[in-house]
Amino acid sequence: MPAPLSLSQAAQLVLEQNPRLLSAPFGREASLALQQEAALKPQYSVGLEVANFAGSGEVSGFDAAETTLSLSRIFEPSDLRSGRVSVAVAQSDRLDNELESQRLDLMTSLARRFLAVVYLQETMQLAQSSVDMWQEAAKLAEVRERAGIAPEADRLRTELRLVNARLDVERASHELQAARTSLAATWGDTTASYGQASGALCGVQVLAPFEEVATSLQRNPDLLRFATEQRLYEASAQLATARRQPPWLLSAGVRRLEQFDDHAFVLGVTMPLGSPSRASYAQRSAAALRQRSELEERAEQLDVRATLNELYQELLFLRTEIETFDREILPRAGAIVAQIDDGYRVGRFNHLELINARAEFIAAQTARLTSCSNYQLGLINIERLTGGGSVWLAGGSGVSP
Question: Which of 14, 157, 164, 292 is the one with CA 20 to 30 A from 276?
Answer without folding.
Answer: 292
